[in-house]
Amino acid sequence: MDQKKSLLIYVVEDNKIFNKVVCEYLKNEKYTNFKSFESGKECIKTIENGEKPDIIIQDYALQDMTGIDVLKAVKKENNHTEFVFLTANENTEVAVNSIKYGAFDYIVKDTDVALKKVGYNINKISKMIHLKRRNRTIKLFMIATISVLVIILFIAFLQIAFKIFGEF
After folding, report:
1. What is the CATH number of the domain that holds 67?
2. Could you tell me if residue 163 is inside a domain?
3. Residues spanned by the domain of 69
4. What is the pLDDT of residues 107-130, one digit of tens each?
5. What are the pLDDT digits (tens) for 11-59?
6. Could you tell me which residues come within 8 angstroms of residue 37 by beta carbon, excluding any fewer than 6 positions away?
């Protein structure tokens, strides 16, 4: 399946213009499964209702809460969601805390390559998600294979035991 179509990406940005810029960037990069939110509470409510985004691209300074507040709330519901902060806040302490609480990256908006960095991070996260899913599938296959082998060995053991000791 095409990763650009299968990834569920949330954009959480209270600045309507920049929200639209990020969404247009995703659309131009052929991502088709994304949702836009203008508040952290709106995003959290959607997740509490059962949606599990793969990636959240968000501002740090939202009108209703901080990006770290959103990150903490989302991680309680779905620890697998990855966060990319895209913010004008250049405070190093905020950036470090964002990473400390589980953000994948912290990108400052004021550079002309900020959206390219977001795209690069989405690509890295996408590959990571794909590998995790693949590893999970391989692990399940290995467990099933080992289970079948154990059953075969048990049946073989029973046959040998019946031959040696006769029927019980």
Report:
1. 3.40.50.2300
2. no
3. 3-133
4. 998 777 899 999 999 999 999 988
5. 999 999 999 999 999 999 999 899 999 999 999 999 999 999 999 999 9
6. 10, 11, 12, 13, 43, 46
Check if the beta carbon of residue 22 is closer than 8 Å to that of residue 86.
Answer: yes
- Are 9 and 33 a contacting pair, CB within 8 Å? yes
Q: Determine, yes or no, domain membership for 157.
A: no
Does any domain span residue 160? no
pLDDT for 149 beyond 70 = yes
Name the residue type at position 102.
Answer: G
Q: How would DSSP label each residue in 98-157?
A: HHHTT-SEEEETTSTTHHHHHHHHHHHHHHHHHHHHHHHHHHHHHHHHHHHHHHHHHHHH
- Number of compact structural domains in the chain: 1
Query: Is-contact 9 119, C-beta < 8 A?
Result: no
Reduced to 3 states (helix: H, G, I; strand: E, B; else coil), residue 46 is helix
Is the C-alpha dihedral spanning 108, 114, 115, 119 positive or negative? negative
CA distance 145 to 42: 44
Look at residues 13, 64, 5, 4 and name the one whose alpha carbon lies nearest to residue 36. 13
Q: Which residue has the tokens 């390559």?
A: 113
| Confidence (pTM) | 0.81
Q: Quick check: is 18 in a domain?
A: yes
